[in-house]
Amino acid sequence: MGETGETLLSLSGVHTHIGQYHILHGVDLEVPRGQLTMLLGRNGAGKTTTMRTIMGLWQARQGAVRFAGEDIARLATPDIARRGIAYVPENMGIFGTLTVEENMVLAARRSGLNAERLDWIYSLFPAMRKFWRWPAGQLSGGQKQMLAISRAIIEPAELLLVDEPTKGLAPTIIDALAEAIMALKQTGVTILMVEQNFALARRVGDTVAVMDDGKIIHTGTMAELGADTALQGRLLGLDIGGGTA
């Protein structure tokens, strides 16, 4: 893990267009090494576009995306992944007709399945061992999400991008996923996560950036935002009565 406050990923003045639509309007974002940064905002604020821009799936028309000091904004997605960035998209990106094992083999194409790393993943997500031979399409929503994250981390990554991991999941599954995410964070991996579930964000996040209309409008600690209901309402339109996760 790097020094406290060291920036692993930064976006500076990033503008992204999708077709004729100008989605990101000068995004400035810093992701500290070894921490979990929450990227929050209303639907349509530009969060997924930010994640896809970092991965090179959509290319920034203007601005810099720096990872470990290198501007990666003009690199192809496979080259970005090879530098140590893994991505779990909102649609999970798993192959439903393949088994869990086959999904994992495909994800570990560079180094192959490593028994020690698999055991570590099983410790995070015991369902992966239990359903190893099952077609991924037969898994529950929560199990599919666990498989998607397992695929992203089967090869060592410095930075993990996760887009709305709890969408559509039951509260008990969300709780298990939160425990796994916190355990993953303890290994030193840096995480940037988009999430609509504010209780989960408050529980697992260290730092937070809030987006609106394609720009970052607030940055700070997750603890500060979690404790300030007036600020939550102003930034996110939340009215959660100060409840705890």
Topology:
Layout lengths: L6 E12 L2 E12 L3 E6 L5 H8 L7 E6 L2 E2 L5 H6 L2 E4 L11 H8 L7 H10 L1 H5 L10 H13 L5 E5 L7 H16 L3 E5 L3 H7 L2 E6 L2 E7 H6 L1 H8 L9
Parallel strand pairs: 3-8, 3-9, 6-7, 7-8
Antiparallel strand pairs: 1-2, 1-4, 4-5, 9-10
Helix pairs in contact: 3-6
Entry summary:
36% of the residues lie in helices and 27% in strands.
Describe the structure.
It contains 10 helices and 10 strands. Helix 3 (100-107) runs parallel beside helix 6 (141-153). It has 2 domains: 1-84 and 157-170 and 177-239, P-loop containing nucleotide triphosphate hydrolases (Rossmann fold); 91-155, no CATH class. The radius of gyration is 18 Å and the shape is globular. A hairpin with a 2-residue loop joins strand 1 and strand 2 (21-32). Strands 6-7-8-3-9-10 form a 6-stranded mixed beta sheet, with helices on both faces. Strands 2-1-4-5 form a 4-stranded antiparallel beta sheet, with helices on one face. With 245 residues, it is α/β, with parallel strands linked by helices. The protein starts with 6 loop residues before the first strand and ends in a 9-residue tail after the last helix. The protein has helices at 47-54, 77-82, 100-107, 115-124, 126-130, 141-153, 171-186, 198-204, 222-227, 229-236, and strands at 7-18, 21-32, 36-41, 62-67, 70-71, 85-88, 159-163, 190-194, 207-212, 215-221.
